[in-house]
Protein backbone atom coordinates (compact mmCIF):
# COMPACT_ATOMS: atom_id res chain seq x y z
CA UNK A 1 0.00 0.00 0.00
CA UNK A 2 1.28 3.43 -0.89
CA UNK A 3 0.41 6.55 1.10
CA UNK A 4 0.07 9.83 -0.75
CA UNK A 5 1.12 13.24 0.44
CA UNK A 6 -2.52 14.07 1.20
CA UNK A 7 -3.67 12.46 4.47
CA UNK A 8 -7.32 12.30 3.33
CA UNK A 9 -6.62 9.98 0.44
CA UNK A 10 -5.30 6.42 0.26
CA UNK A 11 -4.66 4.45 -2.91
CA UNK A 12 -4.30 0.67 -3.01
CA UNK A 13 -3.24 -1.29 -6.04
CA UNK A 14 -5.31 -4.44 -6.45
CA UNK A 15 -3.33 -7.36 -7.83
CA UNK A 16 -4.44 -10.88 -8.80
CA UNK A 17 -2.12 -13.76 -8.02
CA UNK A 18 -1.79 -16.24 -10.86
CA UNK A 19 -0.53 -19.74 -10.12
CA UNK A 20 0.89 -21.52 -13.12
CA UNK A 21 3.04 -24.55 -13.77
CA UNK A 22 5.95 -23.99 -16.11
CA UNK A 23 8.41 -26.81 -16.75
CA UNK A 24 7.15 -28.69 -13.67
CA UNK A 25 7.99 -25.70 -11.47
CA UNK A 26 5.38 -23.84 -9.42
CA UNK A 27 5.38 -20.16 -10.36
CA UNK A 28 3.48 -17.44 -8.51
CA UNK A 29 2.80 -14.21 -10.31
CA UNK A 30 0.76 -11.08 -9.78
CA UNK A 31 -1.02 -8.99 -12.37
CA UNK A 32 -2.51 -5.58 -11.83
CA UNK A 33 -6.29 -5.63 -12.34
CA UNK A 34 -7.27 -2.26 -10.85
CA UNK A 35 -7.02 0.12 -7.92
CA UNK A 36 -9.04 1.26 -4.94
CA UNK A 37 -8.99 4.68 -3.30
CA UNK A 38 -10.50 6.35 -0.27
CA UNK A 39 -11.00 10.10 -0.55
CA UNK A 40 -13.02 12.51 1.58
CA UNK A 41 -14.81 9.66 3.31
CA UNK A 42 -15.80 7.97 0.02
CA UNK A 43 -14.37 4.80 -1.45
CA UNK A 44 -13.88 4.29 -5.12
CA UNK A 45 -12.71 1.27 -7.08
CA UNK A 46 -11.53 0.99 -10.64
CA UNK A 47 -11.15 -2.48 -12.17
CA UNK A 48 -9.60 -2.98 -15.57
CA UNK A 49 -10.75 -6.63 -15.73
CA UNK A 50 -12.87 -9.10 -13.75
CA UNK A 51 -11.31 -10.45 -10.59
CA UNK A 52 -13.17 -13.74 -11.02
CA UNK A 53 -13.28 -15.44 -14.42
CA UNK A 54 -16.67 -15.90 -16.13
CA UNK A 55 -18.51 -19.15 -15.51
CA UNK A 56 -18.08 -20.23 -19.11
CA UNK A 57 -14.32 -20.28 -18.47
CA UNK A 58 -14.45 -21.55 -14.90
CA UNK A 59 -16.72 -24.50 -15.82
CA UNK A 60 -15.62 -24.83 -19.42
CA UNK A 61 -13.61 -27.91 -18.45
CA UNK A 62 -14.69 -30.17 -15.58
CA UNK A 63 -11.38 -32.00 -15.71
CA UNK A 64 -12.96 -35.44 -16.00
CA UNK A 65 -15.07 -35.05 -12.87
CA UNK A 66 -18.04 -37.42 -12.44
CA UNK A 67 -21.50 -35.81 -12.22
CA UNK A 68 -24.57 -37.63 -10.91
CA UNK A 69 -27.82 -37.30 -12.84
CA UNK A 70 -31.38 -38.38 -12.11
CA UNK A 71 -33.30 -40.04 -14.91
CA UNK A 72 -36.03 -42.55 -15.71
CA UNK A 73 -36.35 -45.27 -18.32
CA UNK A 74 -38.40 -43.38 -20.89
CA UNK A 75 -37.84 -44.62 -24.42
CA UNK A 76 -37.17 -43.05 -26.91
CA UNK A 77 -35.64 -40.25 -24.83
CA UNK A 78 -33.87 -42.45 -22.28
CA UNK A 79 -33.04 -46.13 -22.58
CA UNK A 80 -31.27 -47.74 -19.63
CA UNK A 81 -29.91 -51.14 -18.71
CA UNK A 82 -29.67 -52.60 -15.20
CA UNK A 83 -26.75 -54.23 -13.47
CA UNK A 84 -25.52 -54.60 -9.88
CA UNK A 85 -28.54 -52.76 -8.51
CA UNK A 86 -27.95 -49.67 -10.64
CA UNK A 87 -28.69 -48.41 -14.13
CA UNK A 88 -26.56 -47.44 -17.09
CA UNK A 89 -27.49 -45.68 -20.35
CA UNK A 90 -27.98 -47.70 -23.50
CA UNK A 91 -29.27 -45.00 -25.85
CA UNK A 92 -31.96 -42.46 -26.49
CA UNK A 93 -32.39 -38.86 -27.58
CA UNK A 94 -31.58 -37.38 -24.17
CA UNK A 95 -28.53 -39.61 -23.86
CA UNK A 96 -27.26 -38.15 -27.14
CA UNK A 97 -27.78 -34.67 -25.67
CA UNK A 98 -26.00 -35.59 -22.45
CA UNK A 99 -23.11 -37.33 -24.22
CA UNK A 100 -22.55 -34.27 -26.40
CA UNK A 101 -22.45 -31.93 -23.38
CA UNK A 102 -20.19 -34.31 -21.42
CA UNK A 103 -17.73 -34.62 -24.26
CA UNK A 104 -17.61 -30.89 -24.84
CA UNK A 105 -17.17 -30.00 -21.13
CA UNK A 106 -14.96 -32.99 -20.26
CA UNK A 107 -16.94 -34.77 -17.55
CA UNK A 108 -18.32 -38.24 -16.97
CA UNK A 109 -21.68 -39.05 -15.44
CA UNK A 110 -23.52 -41.66 -13.43
CA UNK A 111 -27.29 -42.04 -13.61
CA UNK A 112 -29.68 -42.87 -10.77
CA UNK A 113 -33.46 -43.31 -10.63
CA UNK A 114 -35.87 -41.48 -8.30
CA UNK A 115 -37.13 -43.81 -5.56
CA UNK A 116 -40.78 -42.97 -6.32
CA UNK A 117 -40.37 -43.44 -10.08
CA UNK A 118 -41.91 -40.05 -10.91
CA UNK A 119 -40.95 -37.00 -12.92
CA UNK A 120 -41.76 -34.86 -9.90
CA UNK A 121 -43.56 -31.69 -8.90
CA UNK A 122 -43.68 -29.49 -5.78
CA UNK A 123 -46.65 -30.31 -3.55
CA UNK A 124 -48.68 -27.85 -1.43
CA UNK A 125 -47.26 -29.47 1.73
CA UNK A 126 -43.73 -28.48 0.69
CA UNK A 127 -42.53 -31.91 -0.45
CA UNK A 128 -41.07 -32.35 -3.91
CA UNK A 129 -41.36 -35.70 -5.65
CA UNK A 130 -39.44 -37.51 -8.34
CA UNK A 131 -36.41 -36.34 -10.28
CA UNK A 132 -37.29 -32.70 -9.62
CA UNK A 133 -37.13 -33.36 -5.89
CA UNK A 134 -33.70 -34.97 -6.17
CA UNK A 135 -32.36 -31.94 -8.05
CA UNK A 136 -34.02 -29.50 -5.65
CA UNK A 137 -32.44 -31.23 -2.64
CA UNK A 138 -29.00 -31.22 -4.33
CA UNK A 139 -28.91 -35.02 -4.34
CA UNK A 140 -27.90 -34.95 -8.00
CA UNK A 141 -26.16 -32.46 -10.26
CA UNK A 142 -28.89 -32.57 -12.89
CA UNK A 143 -32.09 -34.36 -13.95
CA UNK A 144 -32.81 -35.32 -17.55
CA UNK A 145 -35.60 -37.38 -19.11
CA UNK A 146 -38.03 -35.41 -21.27
CA UNK A 147 -38.69 -33.05 -18.33
CA UNK A 148 -41.16 -30.28 -19.14
CA UNK A 149 -40.26 -26.77 -18.05
CA UNK A 150 -43.10 -25.38 -15.93
CA UNK A 151 -43.56 -22.38 -13.63
CA UNK A 152 -44.17 -24.64 -10.65
CA UNK A 153 -40.98 -26.61 -11.15
CA UNK A 154 -38.93 -23.47 -11.72
CA UNK A 155 -39.72 -22.38 -8.17
CA UNK A 156 -37.52 -25.21 -6.83
CA UNK A 157 -34.97 -25.90 -9.61
CA UNK A 158 -33.26 -24.04 -12.44
CA UNK A 159 -33.84 -25.20 -16.00
CA UNK A 160 -31.61 -24.81 -18.98
CA UNK A 161 -33.07 -23.37 -22.13
CA UNK A 162 -35.31 -25.90 -23.97
CA UNK A 163 -33.57 -28.38 -26.24
CA UNK A 164 -36.83 -29.81 -27.68
CA UNK A 165 -40.47 -28.76 -28.06
CA UNK A 166 -43.67 -30.78 -28.35
CA UNK A 167 -47.39 -30.67 -27.56
CA UNK A 168 -49.79 -33.04 -25.81
CA UNK A 169 -52.47 -35.22 -27.35
CA UNK A 170 -54.82 -38.09 -26.46
CA UNK A 171 -54.16 -41.68 -27.51
CA UNK A 172 -57.00 -44.19 -27.38
CA UNK A 173 -58.02 -47.50 -28.90
CA UNK A 174 -58.61 -47.42 -32.64
CA UNK A 175 -62.35 -46.99 -33.37
CA UNK A 176 -64.11 -50.24 -34.16
CA UNK A 177 -66.37 -50.72 -37.14
CA UNK A 178 -69.92 -49.80 -36.35
CA UNK A 179 -72.47 -52.61 -36.22
CA UNK A 180 -74.48 -52.71 -39.44
CA UNK A 181 -77.78 -53.88 -37.98
CA UNK A 182 -79.19 -50.34 -38.22
CA UNK A 183 -77.28 -49.31 -41.34
CA UNK A 184 -80.44 -48.30 -43.23
CA UNK A 185 -80.99 -45.54 -40.68
CA UNK A 186 -77.47 -44.08 -40.90
CA UNK A 187 -77.99 -41.68 -43.84
CA UNK A 188 -80.10 -39.29 -41.74
CA UNK A 189 -79.73 -38.12 -38.19
CA UNK A 190 -82.36 -38.85 -35.56
CA UNK A 191 -83.72 -35.31 -35.85
CA UNK A 192 -84.10 -35.62 -39.63
CA UNK A 193 -85.97 -38.91 -39.29
CA UNK A 194 -88.37 -37.37 -36.78
CA UNK A 195 -89.01 -34.41 -39.08
CA UNK A 196 -89.61 -36.67 -42.11
CA UNK A 197 -92.13 -38.78 -40.21
CA UNK A 198 -93.92 -35.65 -39.02
CA UNK A 199 -94.01 -34.21 -42.57
CA UNK A 200 -95.34 -37.45 -44.11
CA UNK A 201 -98.07 -37.64 -41.47
CA UNK A 202 -99.04 -33.99 -41.78
CA UNK A 203 -98.79 -33.32 -45.51
CA UNK A 204 -101.70 -35.63 -46.46
CA UNK A 205 -104.29 -33.90 -44.25
CA UNK A 206 -102.91 -30.49 -45.29
CA UNK A 207 -103.37 -31.24 -49.00
CA UNK A 208 -106.78 -32.76 -48.32
CA UNK A 209 -107.81 -29.59 -46.47
CA UNK A 210 -106.54 -27.53 -49.37
CA UNK A 211 -108.60 -29.63 -51.81
CA UNK A 212 -111.75 -29.23 -49.70
CA UNK A 213 -111.34 -25.45 -49.56
CA UNK A 214 -110.87 -25.43 -53.33
CA UNK A 215 -114.03 -27.51 -53.84
CA UNK A 216 -116.20 -25.45 -51.50
CA UNK A 217 -115.09 -22.29 -53.27
CA UNK A 218 -116.48 -23.86 -56.46
CA UNK A 219 -113.04 -23.76 -58.04
CA UNK A 220 -113.01 -27.52 -58.53
CA UNK A 221 -115.51 -30.39 -58.39
CA UNK A 222 -112.89 -33.03 -57.58
CA UNK A 223 -113.69 -35.07 -54.49
CA UNK A 224 -111.28 -37.47 -52.85
CA UNK A 225 -111.37 -39.26 -49.56
CA UNK A 226 -108.78 -38.44 -46.90
CA UNK A 227 -107.45 -42.01 -47.05
CA UNK A 228 -106.79 -41.68 -50.79
CA UNK A 229 -104.88 -38.43 -50.41
CA UNK A 230 -102.80 -39.71 -47.49
CA UNK A 231 -101.91 -42.91 -49.33
CA UNK A 232 -100.96 -40.97 -52.47
CA UNK A 233 -98.67 -38.75 -50.40
CA UNK A 234 -97.01 -41.87 -48.96
CA UNK A 235 -96.68 -43.41 -52.44
CA UNK A 236 -94.90 -40.29 -53.62
CA UNK A 237 -92.46 -40.53 -50.71
CA UNK A 238 -91.70 -44.11 -51.77
CA UNK A 239 -91.25 -42.89 -55.38
CA UNK A 240 -94.19 -45.00 -56.57
CA UNK A 241 -96.04 -42.32 -58.53
CA UNK A 242 -99.57 -40.93 -58.10
CA UNK A 243 -102.94 -42.47 -59.03
CA UNK A 244 -105.11 -39.44 -58.32
CA UNK A 245 -106.54 -37.79 -61.45
CA UNK A 246 -106.08 -34.14 -60.60
CA UNK A 247 -107.45 -31.37 -62.81
CA UNK A 248 -107.19 -28.31 -60.56
CA UNK A 249 -103.96 -26.38 -61.18
CA UNK A 250 -103.46 -25.31 -57.52
CA UNK A 251 -103.79 -28.91 -56.36
CA UNK A 252 -101.40 -30.08 -59.09
CA UNK A 253 -98.90 -27.42 -58.04
CA UNK A 254 -99.12 -28.57 -54.42
CA UNK A 255 -98.49 -32.19 -55.43
CA UNK A 256 -95.67 -31.13 -57.78
CA UNK A 257 -93.83 -29.44 -54.90
CA UNK A 258 -94.33 -32.56 -52.81
CA UNK A 259 -92.96 -34.77 -55.64
CA UNK A 260 -89.85 -32.62 -55.97
CA UNK A 261 -89.29 -32.81 -52.23
CA UNK A 262 -89.66 -36.61 -52.29
CA UNK A 263 -87.26 -37.01 -55.25
CA UNK A 264 -84.58 -34.96 -53.47
CA UNK A 265 -84.99 -36.88 -50.21
CA UNK A 266 -84.92 -40.20 -52.05
CA UNK A 267 -81.78 -39.29 -53.99
CA UNK A 268 -79.98 -38.09 -50.86
CA UNK A 269 -80.99 -41.18 -48.92
CA UNK A 270 -80.07 -43.65 -51.66
CA UNK A 271 -76.67 -42.15 -52.40
CA UNK A 272 -75.70 -41.79 -48.76
CA UNK A 273 -76.92 -45.28 -47.88
CA UNK A 274 -74.85 -46.77 -50.70
CA UNK A 275 -71.74 -45.04 -49.40
CA UNK A 276 -72.41 -46.25 -45.86
CA UNK A 277 -73.00 -49.85 -46.97
CA UNK A 278 -69.97 -50.37 -49.22
CA UNK A 279 -67.41 -48.38 -47.19
CA UNK A 280 -66.79 -49.44 -43.56
CA UNK A 281 -68.11 -47.02 -40.94
CA UNK A 282 -66.36 -46.57 -37.60
CA UNK A 283 -67.17 -45.35 -34.14
CA UNK A 284 -66.54 -41.68 -33.42
CA UNK A 285 -62.89 -41.26 -32.30
CA UNK A 286 -61.52 -39.09 -29.50
CA UNK A 287 -59.93 -36.15 -31.31
CA UNK A 288 -59.96 -33.40 -28.69
CA UNK A 289 -60.50 -32.60 -25.03
CA UNK A 290 -64.09 -31.68 -25.87
CA UNK A 291 -64.61 -35.21 -27.29
CA UNK A 292 -63.01 -36.66 -24.17
CA UNK A 293 -65.37 -34.81 -21.85
CA UNK A 294 -68.42 -35.74 -23.96
CA UNK A 295 -67.44 -39.43 -23.98
CA UNK A 296 -66.79 -39.33 -20.24
CA UNK A 297 -70.31 -37.99 -19.62
CA UNK A 298 -71.96 -40.45 -22.03
CA UNK A 299 -70.16 -43.73 -21.37
CA UNK A 300 -67.81 -43.33 -18.40
CA UNK A 301 -64.69 -42.88 -20.53
CA UNK A 302 -61.67 -41.87 -18.39
CA UNK A 303 -58.27 -40.34 -18.98
CA UNK A 304 -55.06 -42.02 -17.87
CA UNK A 305 -51.98 -40.04 -16.94
CA UNK A 306 -48.72 -40.41 -15.04
CA UNK A 307 -48.68 -38.90 -11.55
CA UNK A 308 -46.86 -35.62 -10.86
CA UNK A 309 -46.30 -34.82 -14.52
CA UNK A 310 -46.74 -31.43 -16.14
CA UNK A 311 -49.83 -32.73 -17.96
CA UNK A 312 -51.48 -33.63 -14.67
CA UNK A 313 -50.58 -30.30 -13.08
CA UNK A 314 -52.27 -28.16 -15.76
CA UNK A 315 -55.48 -30.17 -15.42
CA UNK A 316 -55.45 -30.34 -11.63
CA UNK A 317 -54.67 -26.66 -11.14
CA UNK A 318 -57.21 -25.38 -13.70
CA UNK A 319 -59.99 -23.25 -12.21
CA UNK A 320 -62.15 -22.87 -15.34
CA UNK A 321 -62.43 -23.90 -18.96
CA UNK A 322 -61.94 -27.19 -20.75
CA UNK A 323 -58.99 -28.25 -18.56
CA UNK A 324 -61.20 -28.09 -15.46
CA UNK A 325 -63.98 -29.99 -17.27
CA UNK A 326 -61.53 -32.75 -18.14
CA UNK A 327 -60.37 -32.99 -14.53
CA UNK A 328 -63.92 -32.96 -13.16
CA UNK A 329 -65.53 -35.43 -15.56
CA UNK A 330 -62.77 -37.64 -17.02
CA UNK A 331 -60.32 -38.01 -14.14
CA UNK A 332 -60.88 -40.85 -11.68
CA UNK A 333 -58.49 -40.70 -8.68
CA UNK A 334 -58.76 -44.47 -8.27
CA UNK A 335 -58.17 -45.44 -11.90
CA UNK A 336 -56.57 -42.63 -13.88
CA UNK A 337 -52.97 -42.83 -12.64
CA UNK A 338 -50.54 -45.16 -14.40
CA UNK A 339 -47.07 -46.12 -13.23
CA UNK A 340 -45.30 -46.06 -16.62
CA UNK A 341 -45.82 -44.99 -20.20
CA UNK A 342 -46.19 -48.66 -21.14
CA UNK A 343 -49.10 -49.05 -18.71
CA UNK A 344 -50.85 -46.03 -20.22
CA UNK A 345 -50.71 -47.39 -23.75
CA UNK A 346 -51.68 -50.90 -22.61
CA UNK A 347 -54.76 -49.68 -20.75
CA UNK A 348 -55.85 -47.68 -23.79
CA UNK A 349 -56.36 -51.03 -25.56
CA UNK A 350 -58.09 -52.91 -22.76
CA UNK A 351 -60.23 -50.19 -21.15
CA UNK A 352 -62.40 -47.26 -22.14
CA UNK A 353 -59.61 -44.78 -21.55
CA UNK A 354 -57.40 -42.29 -23.32
CA UNK A 355 -53.75 -41.83 -22.39
CA UNK A 356 -52.49 -38.23 -22.29
CA UNK A 357 -48.86 -37.70 -23.31
CA UNK A 358 -46.79 -35.86 -25.90
CA UNK A 359 -47.52 -36.35 -29.59
CA UNK A 360 -44.03 -37.63 -30.39
CA UNK A 361 -44.22 -40.27 -27.66
CA UNK A 362 -47.66 -41.30 -28.93
CA UNK A 363 -46.47 -41.65 -32.50
CA UNK A 364 -43.35 -43.67 -31.85
CA UNK A 365 -44.77 -45.93 -29.15
CA UNK A 366 -47.94 -46.78 -31.08
CA UNK A 367 -45.76 -47.47 -34.11
CA UNK A 368 -43.83 -50.07 -32.12
CA UNK A 369 -46.93 -51.67 -30.57
CA UNK A 370 -49.01 -51.63 -33.76
CA UNK A 371 -50.24 -48.33 -35.08
CA UNK A 372 -53.47 -49.83 -36.43
CA UNK A 373 -54.48 -50.65 -32.84
CA UNK A 374 -54.46 -47.01 -31.68
CA UNK A 375 -55.94 -43.67 -32.58
CA UNK A 376 -53.97 -40.47 -31.92
CA UNK A 377 -56.16 -37.39 -31.48
CA UNK A 378 -55.83 -34.74 -34.16
CA UNK A 379 -55.97 -31.86 -31.70
CA UNK A 380 -52.87 -31.00 -29.69
CA UNK A 381 -52.77 -28.79 -26.63
CA UNK A 382 -50.36 -27.46 -23.99
CA UNK A 383 -47.21 -26.76 -26.09
CA UNK A 384 -44.16 -27.35 -23.91
CA UNK A 385 -40.38 -27.29 -23.91
CA UNK A 386 -38.03 -29.87 -22.38
CA UNK A 387 -34.92 -28.81 -20.45
CA UNK A 388 -32.25 -30.09 -18.07
CA UNK A 389 -33.18 -29.48 -14.42
CA UNK A 390 -30.30 -28.30 -12.20
CA UNK A 391 -30.25 -27.41 -8.49
CA UNK A 392 -31.13 -23.79 -7.85
CA UNK A 393 -28.13 -21.53 -8.32
CA UNK A 394 -26.09 -24.10 -10.23
CA UNK A 395 -23.18 -22.22 -11.81
CA UNK A 396 -22.77 -24.76 -14.61
CA UNK A 397 -26.34 -24.37 -15.93
CA UNK A 398 -25.26 -21.50 -18.15
CA UNK A 399 -22.36 -23.57 -19.43
CA UNK A 400 -24.78 -26.37 -20.39
CA UNK A 401 -26.78 -23.77 -22.31
CA UNK A 402 -23.77 -22.83 -24.42
CA UNK A 403 -23.90 -26.37 -25.80
CA UNK A 404 -27.69 -26.58 -26.11
CA UNK A 405 -27.98 -23.17 -27.73
CA UNK A 406 -25.90 -20.05 -27.95
CA UNK A 407 -26.63 -16.46 -28.84
CA UNK A 408 -23.55 -16.44 -31.03
CA UNK A 409 -24.32 -17.12 -34.70
CA UNK A 410 -20.84 -18.60 -35.07
CA UNK A 411 -21.35 -21.35 -32.50
CA UNK A 412 -20.91 -24.80 -34.04
CA UNK A 413 -22.02 -26.94 -31.09
CA UNK A 414 -25.58 -25.71 -30.59
CA UNK A 415 -27.80 -28.79 -30.36
CA UNK A 416 -31.18 -27.11 -30.74
CA UNK A 417 -30.45 -24.43 -33.33
CA UNK A 418 -28.30 -26.85 -35.32
CA UNK A 419 -31.24 -29.28 -35.63
CA UNK A 420 -29.39 -32.18 -34.01
CA UNK A 421 -32.16 -32.98 -31.51
CA UNK A 422 -34.75 -32.95 -34.30
CA UNK A 423 -32.52 -35.27 -36.33
CA UNK A 424 -32.15 -37.68 -33.42
CA UNK A 425 -35.94 -37.71 -33.00
CA UNK A 426 -36.38 -38.48 -36.68
CA UNK A 427 -33.73 -41.22 -36.52
CA UNK A 428 -35.66 -42.94 -33.73
CA UNK A 429 -38.84 -42.79 -35.79
CA UNK A 430 -37.14 -44.20 -38.88
CA UNK A 431 -35.50 -46.98 -36.88
CA UNK A 432 -38.79 -47.93 -35.24
CA UNK A 433 -40.65 -47.86 -38.54
CA UNK A 434 -38.09 -50.09 -40.25
CA UNK A 435 -38.23 -52.63 -37.42
CA UNK A 436 -42.02 -52.79 -37.49
CA UNK A 437 -43.51 -55.62 -39.53
CA UNK A 438 -45.61 -54.68 -42.56
CA UNK A 439 -48.35 -56.89 -41.14
CA UNK A 440 -48.83 -54.37 -38.35
CA UNK A 441 -50.19 -51.79 -40.72
CA UNK A 442 -53.70 -53.14 -40.33
CA UNK A 443 -56.48 -53.51 -42.82
CA UNK A 444 -57.12 -50.75 -45.29
CA UNK A 445 -60.57 -49.38 -45.97
CA UNK A 446 -61.73 -51.11 -49.15
CA UNK A 447 -65.03 -51.30 -50.97
CA UNK A 448 -67.09 -54.22 -49.69
CA UNK A 449 -69.95 -56.16 -51.26
CA UNK A 450 -73.32 -55.66 -49.60
CA UNK A 451 -73.91 -58.62 -47.29
CA UNK A 452 -76.80 -59.79 -45.16
CA UNK A 453 -75.58 -57.94 -42.08
CA UNK A 454 -75.87 -54.65 -44.01
CA UNK A 455 -79.61 -55.26 -44.55
CA UNK A 456 -80.60 -56.67 -41.19
CA UNK A 457 -82.74 -53.64 -40.40
CA UNK A 458 -84.55 -53.86 -43.75
CA UNK A 459 -85.60 -57.46 -43.11
CA UNK A 460 -86.45 -56.55 -39.54
CA UNK A 461 -88.76 -53.75 -40.74
CA UNK A 462 -90.37 -56.15 -43.25
CA UNK A 463 -91.04 -58.70 -40.53
CA UNK A 464 -92.32 -55.99 -38.20
CA UNK A 465 -94.67 -54.67 -40.88
CA UNK A 466 -96.14 -58.09 -41.59
CA UNK A 467 -96.52 -58.78 -37.88
CA UNK A 468 -98.34 -55.47 -37.41
CA UNK A 469 -100.58 -56.19 -40.39
CA UNK A 470 -101.38 -59.64 -39.03
CA UNK A 471 -102.20 -58.16 -35.62
CA UNK A 472 -104.56 -55.59 -37.18
CA UNK A 473 -106.20 -58.33 -39.29
CA UNK A 474 -106.70 -60.45 -36.20
CA UNK A 475 -108.22 -57.45 -34.39
CA UNK A 476 -110.60 -56.75 -37.29
CA UNK A 477 -111.72 -60.39 -37.31
CA UNK A 478 -112.45 -60.24 -33.60
CA UNK A 479 -114.47 -57.01 -34.02
CA UNK A 480 -116.44 -58.54 -36.89
CA UNK A 481 -117.24 -61.66 -34.91
CA UNK A 482 -118.36 -59.55 -31.94
CA UNK A 483 -121.03 -57.72 -34.01
Descriptive account of the structure:
The protein is an alpha/beta fold. Among the domains are: 2-51, no CATH class; 187-278; 452-482. Helix content is 40%, strand content 20%. It contains 15 helices and 17 strands. The strands form 5 sheets. Strands 11, 12, 13, 14, 15 and 16 form a 6-stranded mixed β-sheet that branches. Residues 1-11, 18-26 and 406-412 have low confidence and may be disordered.
Condensed summary:
With 483 residues, the protein is α/β, with parallel strands linked by helices.
Task: Return residue spans where pLDDT drops below 50 for at least 5 consecutive residues.
Answer: 1-11, 18-26, 406-412
Q: Could you state the oligomeric state of the chains shown?
A: single chain
Average pLDDT metric: 84
| Alpha carbon gyration radius | 39 Å
Number of helices: 15
Shape: elongated
Amino acid sequence: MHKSSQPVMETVTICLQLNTIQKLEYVAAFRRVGRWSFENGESRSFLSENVFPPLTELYGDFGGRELVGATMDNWPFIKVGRADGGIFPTGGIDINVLDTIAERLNFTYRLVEPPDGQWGYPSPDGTISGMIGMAARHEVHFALSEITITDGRETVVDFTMPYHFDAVTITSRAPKQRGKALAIFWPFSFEVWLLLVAVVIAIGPVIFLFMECNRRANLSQETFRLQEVVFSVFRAMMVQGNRLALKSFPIRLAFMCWYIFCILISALYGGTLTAFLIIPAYEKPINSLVDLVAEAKDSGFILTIMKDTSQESILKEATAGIYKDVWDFAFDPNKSHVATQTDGFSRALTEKSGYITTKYISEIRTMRRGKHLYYIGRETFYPQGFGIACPSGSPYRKVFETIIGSASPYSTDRLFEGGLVAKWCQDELVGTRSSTSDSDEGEQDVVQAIALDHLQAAFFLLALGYALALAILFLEVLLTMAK
